[in-house]
Every structure is written in C-alpha cells, then in structure tokens.
Write a structure and sequence with these properties.
7-stranded mixed sheet, GMP Synthetase, Chain A, domain 3, alpha/beta, Rossmann fold
C-alpha cells in the first residue's frame, strides 16, 4: 500500500463505517454472512455483524489447513526457564485443540458456558483458549499467579463450569505453586464449579484428589469439530481492574474481534501469512489474547509463546536469541522490558552476539514509552521503533504509526495517529468542546467504536454505560488525558482516574487503598502512581497513622507490602509507604491525588481554589523529598 493510503483509508472508515467494515469482513470465511453490518442491541449499544455466523477457531486453524498451510509452523513454545522449545504445525496444533475441545465437552461444557484458565505461559494455555472458541464456550483467562482473592472474585463473576490450571508457574528464580492458590480461591468463592482440571508440570506437581488430571482426560478425549456461533456471541471475558475494587469483565465478541485483528495485522504491523510474529507478553493480558494467540493465527502467521523474561533468562540477550533462532519479523513488547534490557546491557554488548537481520519492526505498548528508551532502541536496532496505544477495552490499537500503510515520521513521545475506525478526539472535561492543538484534555473516541472493541461489560450494561459512555455523551471515554499536536499526532499523558499502569498492568489504586486502610494502625491513606524509570509507574502510599501508633516507614512498608501481595499479588509492586500528619483535601473532603502525583513526579501543578489548607501541600513535598 502507498503512503497516501493512511489518510484515504482513515477518512473512508469515518465517513462510512458500515461500508468500510463490511468490506474488511469479506476477508473472513463466514458460515452465514452478516445480515446487518452495524446495529444496536436492546440496551442501545452498538453491535457489529449481527446475523453473521462463524467460528473463531475455524478461522485460526482449520481454514489455513484447508488452504494448504497445514505443515507451516503455527506456534513455537520457547521456554528458557525450562530450556524447552516445542514447535507445532497448523496440523499439530489443530489436533491438540480439537482433542482439548473434546475433553471440555466430556466435562459437560456447552456453547455459552464459561471456562476459567489460570495458567502459566505454556502451550496448553493457548490450546485451551482455542478449544473454548471451537465449541462456543466463553473463556476467561486469569493471569497465572494472581492472588487467590482476585481469582475468587473472577470465579464469582463469571460463574464458570470448569477451571483449567497447571501445577506451577516458573519465575526467574523461583517456582510458584498454583495448587494452593486455586484451593484458597475455591474456598473463598461462593460459586462452585463442576470440575477443576490440572496440567501437571515436570518442575513441580500438585496432588489434590478432587482435581482431574488434564493429560489423562486428554488421552481419552475425541477430536471434535467447530460449533457455529453468532458474530455477536462472546468469545471471551477478560477482567481488568476497576476503581471500585470489583473487577470489570471486558466482553469480546467473535465476529468483530476476528475482523479487527485480521485488519490490524496487515495495516498496523505489516505482517503477512507465513511471517514470524512475536508478542512478548502473557496470555493473562489483552496483548496475549490479541497478539500471541488470535491475530497471528487468524492471519496464518507463526506465533511465539515465550516463557521467560527480557533479562536473567539467562541474560539481557534473551530477546535477541529468540529473534535470531526463530527468524522473528515483528517484535511487540512493553517499554518496561526494554528499560530492563537497557539497564543490564546499556552498550548493547550482548545484542552484538546475535544475527537479528530478520527483525523489521519493534512495536512498544502497554504504557507510555519515554523518549530516552525509544531513542536507545532505535540506535541499537537501526529499524523503526513504533510506540502505539490501546487498552484492554479496545482489544487492538487505537493510535499507531501503521507500518502496513507506509510509515509516517516517528514523533518521540507520541503514540502516533488514530488508527482507521477510531475517531479519536481531545475534549475539554467541562464543556466537552474540542481542545486546541497542544492543549491537554480528555481523550475520547466518537461512537460507534469500530469492530473488536468491547460491546459491553459481562452481565453489567449499567456499569458499562456509567463507566465509559456517561461522562461524554456520544463518545467512549478512555480515562486517559492527552493532546494532539498541529500535525494530528496524539500524545497520551496518563490516567485521569485512579487506575495506574505498572509495567503494562493496569491496577486499581482504590483497591490498594482499601487494603492499606484495613491495616490496624492506619487512620487514613492515599495510594498514588509515581513515575518509575523501569516500570512506568509504581504505587506509593501516604498514610496517616492512628493516635498512639508508633511505626517507622520501613516497618509500615513491609507490613503493607505483605498485605497487598496477599490480596492482589506481587505484580502490584507496592514497596513504599510514608507517614504524614494529614492528606491534602478539598473542602468537600476529596483527597487531591492528582496534585500529590505532580509533587512526587516533580511536575508543575495548580492547586484548586477549593483546597482546604494550602500548607498541607508543602508538608507532603517535604515528606516526599526526605524519603530514603
């Protein structure tokens, strides 16, 4: 495609979205062509491809085999933590998936039933996702190692018939047993499912008589075909942190999801059938759903499922070894991974040991990419390094520099321009009028959202409307602030609400505050996200102690870290709490968290006229500056 095609394609997608996406849908093989391209449901929410029938697993596997790609590599499992590499052709992956689907059917799973996957980064995780799609079941993947409490919340919300898990996950220097976590979650959850099925790993097994053995069930399972589902039927539920502490179940439908991901691979990532594509993420997050499992296989690529880290597995050359060994064309990872590599190998000495000539693009997302990291990666790789932006809710990029349409100039600090289909605007929060170029406001997307985005929240249309559509009528509110420059590039400046981004993981500071407030010595607290060179943001607690409580900051930090690890998990990265005499508030009692973030990040701020006592801001600054 020519470079001018971005503008043409983008304008077409906004001028007549039904015609535009109707054309894109023709790239799929439908059991029944959609009767209506764009419509609304009983709640007034937009839906894509109503009346269409298809099967996502068929499009990801069977179709490619029918078209002669059966012996092409579909999936490469590369696990430096177990020193294992397993390669699956499309034929072999279909065999694994169809028998796993048969196993689920034998356990009583039917179309529309939910299945929770609590899995490490092993092939069985991807196989199980596709197996659910094959029989029309709705999968909900929970990040392996998530705290038992978080798993229990998701069990109660999704009400699954079956939970699939493994005996353990493997980190750089430790094994994480999943069995006790699952047991604890089952005890806490009110919903009782029919079966728990466990894949026993060589590194550590887990003996629980009530759990079924995955491998044994699989041996007796028949291979089954695809169940036809409606385009508007849910493919999966993926939970993301909410500001209330209750997780939000993002719903992804089958038809719009397949159309959008197929479109994105060609236009954004410049990937074609047969290319090797590697998203260095985890299937517990949206990147793993979209770009480890579904998009590469819908496109006919070879995808890599990597069980390891960018460093210490065994060193900061780990990524370059994978690129060389598997001839990766496109690498997609989070900026935090590159910051870790940069810290360990600043001069690229390990990089020089590998032949990475196959690598054509590096895409970064999951958090804002700082300019220093972007430029370091550009100098190291000497290829386009592309920051792009999207959310669990969107399911695919909203801002990008679309490699498949001819790259535009890279503007450091910007995540690019709106992707075709996304009418991204920046509005004033009070008047809802457009901001001028370079003026910061709320980042919103004019409705209808394109295919692939969430049509609603799981069994909670009221929360969907209140959380995303109410603040700016006629728009989807992203929750992020930002601005556009004179050339239309969009800059995302950070969350407007109290959800922070820790190494690409969206976590609720409100939930952390609830845990901190439960400490017997805490009278009042605020948890904010502070900029961190490695992880993007880390949570920091400001705590007012109860009278008569004498604790050092280090003692308090240790106790709160333990509490948060138990309730949320180690990914929260909560390590620092500071005691203060009082918190800055408005006269109505609202804690001024945004101002506290500005103080911690050493950024200018304008205190609101409603502040209760201006002197408190100075006290907070003194405490922050005196930290050790």
């Amino acid at each position: 495609m020519a470079k001018s095609d971005y503008t043409t394609l983008y304008e077409q997608s906004l001028a007549n979205p039904e015609t535009f996406w109707g054309e894109q849908a023709k790239s799929l093989k439908w059991t029944t062509e959609p009767a209506t391209i764009l419509s609304t449901d009983e709640h007034g929410f937009y839906r894509w491809f109503a009346g269409g029938e298809m099967n996502t697993c068929y499009l990801a596997l069977d179709r490619h085999i029918e078209e002669g790609r059966g012996e092409q590599l579909a999936l490469i499992y590369d696990s430096p933590v177990t020193q294992t590499i397993i390669r699956y052709t499309y034929n072999q992956l279909l065999d694994e998936v169809s028998r796993c689907a048969g196993m689920l059917q034998q356990l009583g799973v039917e179309k529309g039933d939910r299945v929770i996957l609590y899995m490490p980064m092993i092939p069985q995780a991807a196989v199980a996702m596709l197996a659910c799609a094959r029989i029309g079941a709705v999968h909900s993947v929970v990040f392996g190692g998530f705290a038992a409490h978080e798993l229990a919340l998701r069990i109660d919300d999704a009400r699954p018939k079956v939970l699939l898990t493994a005996s353990a996950g493997i980190e750089i220097d430790k094994i994480i047993p999943y069995g006790p976590l699952v047991q604890s979650a089952l005890q806490e959850a009110e919903h009782q499912m029919d079966h728990v099925v466990m894949w026993q790993r060589d590194v550590q097994t887990y003996d629980e008589p009530t759990f079924k053995n995955w491998a044994e069930l699989l041996d007796d399972a028949p291979a089954v075909g695809c169940t036809t589902v409606a385009a508007t039927d849910p493919l999966y539920i993926l939970y993301t942190s909410g500001t209330t502490g209750k997780p939000k179940g993002i719903v992804r439908d089958n038809g719009g999801h397949a159309v959008a991901l197929r479109f994105s691979m060609q236009t954004i990532y410049d990937v074609q059938p047969g290319d090797v594509y590697w998203a260095a993420s985890d299937v517990g997050w949206v990147v793993g759903h979209s770009y480890i499992v579904y998009a590469p296989l819908l496109t006919g690529c070879t995808t890599i499922l990597y069980e390891g880290k960018p460093i210490r597995t065994p060193d900061a050359g780990a990524f370059w070894r994978v690129v060389e060994q598997h001839r990766v064309k496109v690498l997609f990872t989070a900026p935090t991974g590159f910051r870790a590599i940069k810290k360990e190998d600043p001069d690229g000495e390990l990089f020089k040991k590998y032949d990475v000539s196959s690598l054509k693009y590096l895409f970064l997302a999951g958090e804002r990419c700082d300019i220093a990291t972007l430029q370091w990666a550009e100098q190291l790789l000497n290829i386009p390094v592309i920051d792009h932006w999207w959310q669990t809710e969107s399911g695919w990029p909203m801002l990008a520099n679309p490699a498949g349409l001819g790259l535009m100039p890279v503007v450091p600090g910007s995540a690019g321009k709106p992707v075709p289909g996304f009418d991204v605007q920046v509005l004033h929060g009070d008047t809802h009028t457009p901001c001028a170029p370079n003026e910061e406001g709320a980042v919103v997307v004019k409705l209808p959202l394109p295919p692939g985005c969430l049509p609603t929240l799981w069994e909670n249309p009221e929360r969907f409307h209140a959380g995303y559509l109410e603040a700016f009528p006629g728009y989807y509110f992203t929750g992020d602030g930002g601005y556009k420059n004179d050339d239309g590039y969009v800059f995302i400046t950070g969350r407007i609400d109290d959800v922070i981004n820790v190494a690409g993981h969206r976590l609720s500071t409100a939930e952390m505050e609830e845990i901190v407030a439960a400490h017997p010595g805490v009278a009042e607290c605020a948890v904010i996200g502070v900029e961190d060179q490695l992880k993007g943001q880390v949570p920091v607690g400001f705590v007012v102690l109860k009278g008569g409580i004498n604790m050092t900051d280090s003692e308090l930090s240790r106790e709160l870290e333990k509490m948060i690890r138990e309730k949320i998990g180690p990914i929260a990265c909560f390590k620092q709490a500071m005691t203060v005499q009082r918190l800055p508030k408005t006269r109505s009692g609202k804690i001024l968290r945004r101002i506290m973030r500005c103080i911690a990040d050493d950024k200018p701020y304008q205190a609101p006229s409603t502040i209760e006592d201006m002197a408190v801001l100075g006290e907070i600054k003194d405490v922050w500056n005196s930290r050790t």
